[in-house]
Amino acid sequence: MNKQELVKSVYDKLDGLPLKQAENAVNAVLGSIKDELAKGGEVNLVGFG
Description:
Elements: H1 3-13, H2 19-38
Helix pairs in contact: 1-2
C-alpha cells in the first residue's frame, strides 16, 4: 500500500470526510512519526501488522 492508497482507504472508511481532510489526517500521522524518528525517538504501534 502506498501513501495515496492509504489516503483512499481512510477516505473510504470515514464516510462523509472530504478526500482532502483524509489526506491531511494521513500526512499529520506520518509527519508525527517522521518527526519523532528524526529526533532519535522510537515509535511503537502496538497491534499493528
